[in-house]
């Protein structure tokens, strides 16, 4: 059972989501605007948030931006618009998935399950002590002015630290670990988002675009392989 916060100014949408979530055995709370959502996230321990973009007082983007200042709780963003700009903006803020209205409540529940499985998969096992920083041998990748510390999840471009979204880091580091290898779209989605990913496969293209922008002068090392996928090429 997951503890879910549903944030949407349309009561009909909130009730529909809560109904299906309850059917799946989950507990839900509701908020009608972004300001209230921020307060509730501060006051409660939620497993995942479902947040609409267009809301009064404080829109979903602004609410996500504020929540990310103090919480890394998974977020699914809802929108009546499917423009790439909105998706990019959301993923830059660190959301986990983007769902366009109208949507299937059953599919939304599957997306919640997929995200939570990944969260639980990546969480440390109970009773297992994480190595102290000084005990870890850092895995470093360097190429001209590009330097990536895969252990610390830090990237530098010409000596300046670059901030990326969590999925950008995941995607970039997986490509680095498999540099100079052709990676199919299905392989990248499987390894970065999980085998049970229910999102639009264009999510991969959006994150590649974000990653190229973050890499600046080194963006050309991410090569598009027509009808196949992508490759991080160290020879370019």
Name the assembly state.
single chain
Biggest sheet, spatial arrangement of strands: 2-1-3-4-5
Strand-residue fraction?
A: 15-25%
Give the full name of the CATH homologous superfamily of the largest domain: Response regulator
Helix fraction by DSSP (H/I, runs of at least 4): 25-40%
Tell me the name of the CATH class of the largest domain.
Alpha Beta
User: Under the CATH scheme, which architecture of the largest domain would be assigned?
Assistant: 3-Layer(aba) Sandwich
Question: In terms of structural class, how would the helical and strand content be classed?
Answer: alpha/beta
Structural shape:
elongated
Number of helices: 8
- Give, in order, the helices and strands: EHEHEHEHEHEEEEHEHHEE
Report the mean per-residue pLDDT as an integer.
88
Q: Extract low-pLDDT stretches.
A: none
């Amino acid at each position: 059972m997951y503890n879910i916060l549903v944030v949407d100014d349309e009561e009909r949408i909130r009730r529909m989501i809560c109904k299906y979530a309850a059917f799946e055995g989950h507990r839900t709370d509701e908020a009608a605007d972004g300001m209230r959502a921020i307060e509730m996230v501060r006051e409660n321990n939620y497993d995942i948030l479902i947040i609409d973009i267009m809301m009064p007082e404080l829109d979903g983007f602004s609410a996500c931006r504020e929540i990310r200042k103090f919480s890394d709780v998974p977020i699914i963003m809802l929108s009546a618009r499917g423009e790439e700009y909105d998706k990019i903006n959301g993923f830059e803020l660190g959301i986990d998935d983007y769902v366009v209205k109208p949507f299937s409540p059953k599919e939304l529940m599957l997306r919640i399950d997929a995200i939570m499985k990944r969260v639980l998969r990546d969480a440390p096992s109970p009773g297992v002590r994480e190595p102290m920083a000084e005990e870890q041998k850092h895995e470093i990748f360097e190429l001209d002015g590009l330097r990536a510390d895969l252990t610390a999840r830090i990237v530098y471009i010409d000596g300046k630290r670059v901030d990326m979204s969590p999925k950008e880091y995941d995607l970039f580091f997986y490509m680095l670990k498999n540099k100079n290898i052709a990676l199919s779209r299905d392989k990248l989605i499987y390894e970065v988002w999980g085998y049970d990913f229910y999102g639009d496969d264009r999510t991969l293209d959006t994150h590649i675009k974000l990653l190229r922008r973050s890499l600046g002068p080194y963006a050309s090392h991410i090569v598009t392989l027509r009808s196949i996928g992508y490759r991080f090429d160290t020879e370019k």
